[in-house]
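Hello, quick one for you while I still have it in my head. I'm working through a protein record and want to make sense of it properly. Would you mind checking whether the tokens look sensible for this chain? I owe you a coffee for this, so here goes:
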Amino acid sequence: MPQSRNPLVETKLETDRLHVRYGQTHALKGVNLSVVAGTTLAIIGAGASGKTTLLRCFNRLHDLDPSVRVEGSVKLDGAEVLGPRVDVRSLRRRVGMIFTQPTVLPGSVFDNVAFGLRAKGVRSQAELEERCRAALQRAMLWDRVSSMLRNPAPELPRELLQHLCVARVLALDPEVLLLDDPTASLDPVSGLALEETILALRRDHTVVLATNNLEQAARLSDATCYVANGEVVETGETPHVFNRPTDTRTEDFLAGRSSNLPT
């Protein structure tokens, strides 16, 4: 059941008057949004509505593109993350992201999962092996790859690559998981398997899921945020947004009457 929204509930992520521009394109326009700790928020909207742009603000991935300008505030546990003195590498360990397309690194299955741990400074082989095993188990992948840990990761069956990316993020024990349409590149069976993994992870993480799959949003989330043309139109508990939207634009989008349809 969705967690109650009340002033005593802890806010994990929060944006205030958040604007993002790509050159002349105003991708996000004054977004105000909060994500309650320990819940899953689904962000829905048409293609190019700002879903991925918003997701990338939470761990400053826009820093990698010098053409992007970000204004406003993004906070994690009440602390500003956009400031110049923020340790961005530490932030990205706390707020991990899974992309639409699996981003498998060169090297073995084990090397992929251990990549972030080694970058963090973990050198003990015993610790690497234990934490990699735990991450693969949580990603529901251990039984499939335990005998293939030294095999080249890119040679894994395609349906397992996204699970491997999840395991690589989980190895760092993040507090927040950002999921950018994570099943879009998978067949329906593999997509449902990954959803089962996400459902299990919701118990231990705050999750923000950007998705073009409305049924997926309804299945996986506690709260839903509808974004259109870079603006937050409506946010609320998922059953309320889907069954009793308060904004006619949300109602039109969910009914397929809007011109801003998922792509």
Summary: Residues 1-8 have pLDDT under 50 and may be disordered.
